[in-house]
Amino acid sequence: MADQDQVNDDLEGLDVNMFDTDSDEEISNVHSQMANVQLQTPQRDQKPISSNITYPPRSTPLQDQQKQSEAFRQIMSQDGNSAFLLRAFYNRFFPYKTYFQWLNYDIAPTKNFSHREFSFTLKSDIYVRYNSFMDVEEFRKEIERFQPVKIDIGAVYSVMPKNKKSVAEKAFRPVEKELVFDIDMTDYDEIRTCCSGGDICKKCWQFMTVAIKVIDTSLDEDFGFKHRLWVYSGRRGVHCWVCDDRARKLDNESRKAIVNFLEVIKGGSEQSRKVNLGNSLHPSLARSLEIIKPYFGPLILNSQGVLDTPENWNKVLNTIPDAGVRERLNEMWSTDSLSSGQAKWQDLINVLDKSSDKQIFYKKEGWKISTIFQYCYPRLDDKVSINIGHLLKSPFCVHPKTQRVCVPIPITTCENFDPFSVPTLSSLINEFDAFSANNGPDDSERKLPDYKKTSLRPYIEFFEKFVQRLLLDAQRAKREEASVSMEF
Ligand SMILES: [Zn+2]
User: In this model, does residue 77 exceed pLDDT 50?
Assistant: First the structure.
């Protein structure tokens, strides 16, 4: 971890655009907190912030555990202490070993891990960039010591990030990083009608399901990437980590080309029509259309009701080039505003079908497809994907606002993923306490890991399988490389 000078230097060089968008609120406080940094930054020789609170050892008799659980609750009720819960989370539940193997791409420590940037957000919005760790033990020790309220992952650099200051500026450069995608619900504000800003509900979460399906299919079928990890951001979005060797080595230009290929929605809020597709689609878009089309009726017309109010239906009508058609439909719906979204959509298709304007008639299929894309196709935050050095919130950290754990989302069950049922700091401790109360002390040789006593279990097991497949592939590639070099 950095010393005081390093912390101040890092804060001076902090680029708030380097973080993912789910963190806007937290980042907006950075500058206001800078003045206090010197007073608040923990030093190496200081005890951790919550050192006066002791967590029970990993195996204690049941009675003691219950007594201590009671003590925890008292502490929590005394100062509403989420720092305490976070400490328990890092001590008991964070999957250090698998996490290390994931970013290391091997069992024994490699540069993939030791040269990787980790950025920590400490209490009171203190940001410390360019942390790096030799191995899992050092990583664990420092996480448990500093209790970051947020961990961001950056690139693998040419030099260990913690030694950044000891080399010439040019010698310190990012060399590898997973290809990442950030999909944030705030980018759907102009089309969703149920919530806005940082809020989400089960209705609008469907947009994330559609986004995962479309982007994941394209990464698989168009680019052939095999190791794609989808993660809930903890609040209002999802991230994708593409971990194939080939993806990690992409330069910024290639990342940009992939994002351009995937992006369909273009233009700012002043532009009504953001998708302009013709009647014949690129095979990749034709496949995307098949994925998104089934959602248009249930999600856009029924659940979001985008044709239910004049304000919303005019957003749709404004994308039709013919003013006569727009006025006719607006009049029709104003006199019968209670007709269903499905019925209004049928009105719209009928009017376009009967249009005497040959151009409209000819273009109507393209307009229909473009509208389905505009309302259903994923909206990407391209900055996050294009810049190799961009930071992205780490899986398995806890969102500072919602207290939800950033858990992986299995692609096969993404349809059923419910962001509101994700484990939180307090639910995990409660589950753990309940397990201990029901099962008594665990003195067995093969002690059950603590995460297995909570609802975090399926998420960590899924992550373990993902990492196993990744390591197997990396080992296979290494063997092939070795046999090729033997032949020469
Ligand atoms: Zn909503």
Answer: no
Looking at the fold, whether 172 and 35 belong to one and the same domain comes out as yes
pLDDT band at 362 (very low <50, low <70, confident <90, very high): low
What angle do the packed helices 323-335 and 341-354 form, to 10 degrees?
140
Distance (Å) from CA 85 to ligand 1 centroid: 29
Q: What pLDDT does 83 receive? A: 84
Closest by CA position to 119, among listed 81, 148, 85: 148
- Considering the domain architecture, whether residues 388 and 371 belong to the same structural domain is answered as no
Distance 303 CA to ligand 1 centre (A): 10
Please tell me whether residues 387 and 372 are part of one structural domain. Answer: no
pLDDT digits (tens, 9 = 90+) for 406-422: 999 999 999 999 999 99
Give the residue numbers spanning the domain of 338: 270-376
Helix axes 341-354, 358-376, angle to 10 degrees: 150
The average pLDDT across 10-33 equals 45
Distance 186 CA to ligand 1 centre (A): 10
Q: Measure 354 CA to ligand 1 centroid, in angstroms.
A: 36
Residues annotated as part of the active site: 117, 182, 184
pTM of the model: 0.84
Q: How far apart are CA 170 and CA 172, in angstroms?
A: 5
